[in-house]
Amino acid sequence: MMKTLNDYLAMSYRMEIVEDKDEGGFVVSFPDLSGCISCGETVESAVANAMDAKKEWLAAALEEGVKIHEPDSLEDYSGQFKLRIPRSLHRSLAVHSEREGISMNQYCVYLLSKNDA
Fold it and tell me: Which part of the chain is the HicB-like antitoxin of toxin-antitoxin system domain (predicted)?
């Protein structure tokens, strides 16, 4: 059975958000949807624009009969792993996250994503 636009929109495509240090703002892309890229002044606006771009990209691909790759399954990954780090690094992460007003978990996720882990 042929998948519809809503079928594809319901799938969780991986989204990459990169800060544009030269122009300002953020660039968002979907690695599984070649050429589907958008941007915005803030992370929130960039993501909102990217969701619109994804919908338009998928609609155009369906209309033109372009093969649409389904997203890689994340079911094999729990989203958690244990990491042993030196106490001095633990303290540094705790201090920085507190200064940013976010949890240490959020801060570490930010650092890992920023550094293209």
Answer: 17-79
In angstroms, the CA 107 to CA 100 distance is 8
What digits encode the pLDDT tens for the residues 27-45? 999 999 999 999 999 999 9
78-117: CATH topology is: Arc Repressor Mutant (1.10.1220)
Bridge partners (DSSP) listed for residue 27: 18, 39
The SS3 of residue 23 is: coil
Task: Tell me, yes or no, if the pTM score tops 0.85.
Answer: no
Model pLDDT for residues 11-28, shown as the tens digit of each residue: 989 899 999 988 899 999
Phi, psi dihedral angles at 73 (to 5 degrees) = -75, 135
